[in-house]
Each structure stands twice: as structure tokens, then as C-alpha cells.
Amino acid sequence: MKKIKTAPHAPTEFVVTKSENDRAVFEIFPFEPGYAITLAHPIKRLILSSAVGCAPIAVKIEGATHEFDSVRGVAEDAARLIVNLKNVRFKITGNDDRIELLASFKGPKEVKGRDLAAQGVEVVTPEAHFASINEDGELKVSIILEKGMGYVPSEEIRELIPEGYLPLDGIFGPVRKANYSIEKMLVEDNPNFEKIVFEIATYGQSDPKEVFKSGVATLFKQTEVLSSALGVENVGSLGVKSGDRDESLKTLLLKVEDLGLSARSHNCLTRSDVVYLGEVVLMDESELSKVKNLGKKSLDEIKEKLSQLGYPVHESLPEDLAAKLRAAIAELKG
Predict the structure, then answer these.
(1) How far apart are CA 111 and CA 131, in angstroms?
(2) SS3 readout for 141-170
(3) Architecture of the structural domain at 236-334
(4) E-assigned strands of 203-250?
């Protein structure tokens, strides 16, 4: 017997149908007719606009004072070297937001993307051509790489770099393709329900699953002000549903000693009176880095552990869960 609805059907399934280093396909279903595109289009827009990538933002070429200079012994002039550099895709593998990359080459040599790799920097387009150096030529370059999102024109970058560097357009977006299709599907006796099929492809700098997760988290973050103001239940940036709050709270009240951290990391936290996982989750990266005697290696270990548990340092807990957590910790430590 049919009933008149008072609320739209909410999708219940999220399936990863393909997962590769630079490509993934996701399916979300079932949606009421017309609802799928309402969700799919903003997620696509946010994936393309807010995904964080890495790009060269400035270069200093020895012997070249401006982009139209030629470089002795190098087939390409400065302008062509800049174009070639933009075609090399970099990935900062550590936690730094900016890295200065120094490279020096003597000819004869064809310089490829792989030749620009360095500690903390991976080149995901190793065969990309950068320069051709003659037998008596020499090329010395200094490249500034930075993490960012979207597109930033060189005019805005000029004031962010040291004197003597040539500013480059910051093309940070790591996403090569973000497509979706809406397919019809049968639910009970209704053939007009819908399924979203998302295909995300990157340039190899970012995991497409993480890119998709970031886009969804950004969508929820943009609506948090409405949720708080109107008292509407929202899915937090960490994907914790309201029905899962109690279970999440239990996890966050695990003791630091039970997380399997190294002795150094564990001791640094406990000496600073950090007893529970939730206390670490409530810290941002700057607060965490100020824990006494916590070195970079220990900081990286803790950040990796938080990510494994589903609480990355760069994401905040939903406000209601954070409030409950603070109250619970205060009571336990009171």
C-alpha cells in the first residue's frame, strides 16, 4: 500500500567500485528522483576548487634576470624553461607547506622531471622535459614549491617570494578529472530512483579517495554555520553521524598509552598531562607541535596515528561532539 511521504528517502549505500593510484570510481544510492544532482554538482565544484595540491610558485635561473633572457649553453630561454617547469608535477611528501629546491646540471644533458626530485619532494611526471644543456653549458636553478588550492596568478605571488625570483602562476589543483553521471535504478516498485556515479582522476599527487573525502568535508564545513544557528543536525567534517556520537566519544576517550605510539611520543604526551586520545584530537597542529620535547619525527608519528583513526589534524570535530568530549575529559581528570 502506497503512503504519502513526509520526508525524502535518504541514500544508504556508498561503494568504491574502482580504486587506483590516480583514479577512483564511487557510487552513492538510492536517491529520490531529482535529488542526486542536487548533491553531485556541489561536490564536484568543491572537489575541483578546494583540493590541495603542490606547484612551483617561483624560480631563479642563474644568468637570467627576466623571463625573456637566454641562458648560455641551454637550448631553452628562460620563458621556455618556465613553461617546461609548469608541466612538471611535484608532490611534497612531508609536512612542510613550502620547500626551496636547488638543482645544478652540467652538459651535455637532457634534464627530465626526475632530475628535479629531492629530499621531501617527489616528481610524479618523471619523464617531463625540462631543459636541454649543450656540451659546454651549465644550468643552476632554485625553485620554490608550495602547497595551495585552485589557481593563483603570478601578480599575487610576487609579494610572497624573495627578491630575485621570477613569480609563476600557481596552478595547484591536483584533480585532472571530476565527472559524475546520474543513473536510474529500481527501488521497490519505483524505477525512477537515482544513483550517482563519481569518477575522480588526479595527476598522481593526491589519492583520489582523499580528494573526494576532502570535497565532501568542505561541503559540510560550509553548512556548519546554518546547522549551529538553526539547530539542524549535520554530518560533521569527520563524517560522524549523530547516531554514532556515543561510539565516537568512547573511541576518543581511549588512553594515549593504548594507541601503540613509540615510547618517546607517548612520554612527551603524558609528561604534558595528555592522557586521552580526545585531548590530542582537540589540538590543532600548532598546539601539538608546542608539546614539550616533541620532535618532528614524533609529531609525524602522532599525526599519522590520528589519520589512521579517522581524526586528521587538519579537520575539526563537530561542535556538539567536541563539547561532550571536553566535558567528559574534565570529569575524568577532575
Answers:
(1) 5
(2) EEEEEEEEECEECHHHHHHHCCCCCEECCE
(3) Orthogonal Bundle (1.10)
(4) none
In which residue ranges of the chain is CATH 1.10.150.20 found?
A: 236-334
Three-state SS at 123: strand
CB 232 within 8 A of CB 220: no
CB contact at 8 A, 180 and 199: yes
- Say which residue the cell 625540462 belongs to: 130
Topology, domain 52-170: RNA Polymerase Alpha Subunit; Chain A, domain 2 (2.170.120)
Which residues have CB under 8 Å from 331's CB, separation 6+?
A: none
Give the burial class of 15: count Cβ atoms within 10 A of its Cβ; 0-12 exposed, 13-18 middle, 19 or more buried.
Answer: exposed
Whole-angstrom distance, CA of residue 271 vs CA of residue 87: 48
- Give the CATH class of 1-51+174-234: alpha beta
Residue 118 near residue 145, CB atoms below 8 Å? no
Per-residue pLDDT tens, the chain, 334 aa: give them. 567 878 888 898 989 999 888 999 999 999 999 999 999 999 999 999 999 999 999 999 999 988 889 999 999 999 999 999 999 999 998 888 999 999 999 989 999 999 999 989 999 999 999 999 999 999 999 999 999 999 999 999 999 999 999 999 999 999 999 999 999 999 888 899 999 999 999 999 889 998 998 899 889 888 888 877 887 655 443 444 444 456 678 788 888 888 888 888 888 898 889 999 999 999 888 888 888 888 888 888 898 888 878 788 877 777 778 888 888 888 888 6
In sequence order, the 6+-apart residues with CB closer than 8 A to the CB of 329 are 253, 276, 278, 279
Residue 108: asked if its preceding bond is cis (omega within 30°), the reply is yes
